[in-house]
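Researcher: We're reviewing a set of sequences before deciding which ones to prioritize for further study. For each one, I'd like a predicted 3D structure that I can look through quickly. This is Protein containing YqaJ domain. If possible, include the structure in token form so it fits the rest of the review sheet.
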Amino acid sequence: MEPEARRDFERKVGTAVTQVGLVISPFQPWLCASPDGLFETSSGVTLLEIKCPYSRKDDTIIDHVSQQSYVNYIVYEDGSLKVARSHQYYCQMQVAMYVTNTKECFFFVYSRKQSIIVVVERDEDFLSVNIPKLESFFYLFYMKQLMK
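Model: Here's the predicted structure for Protein containing YqaJ domain, in token form for your review sheet.
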């Protein structure tokens, strides 16, 4: 369903999305990301992350009237849609923005009945805490296992 979602996103936003594969950090080659696409905005190159929740494939994702989300990673906060900071998708997008050196990510959640876009800004506070944790994990645990 992702190709269908990408076409829908391109039509709604009015821009072409460039598909990319694995992107490796040039300064920390142990860190990589595989974004669903990159596209140009007035802010510059922007990241695209697409989710197509199977449980909602033929149903709505959110109810704007009651401000209810039917997926656990989208929440209403002060009347606006946000990605839950505690969800792994938030971390995934932050690391992808770090690796691709982008400032924002369009999080596109798609079903055949509804699609939503949540713009996620790069969170330097989150990255300053979590990138060192990822680096420690890589060198202290992962590399040790690879060397066995």
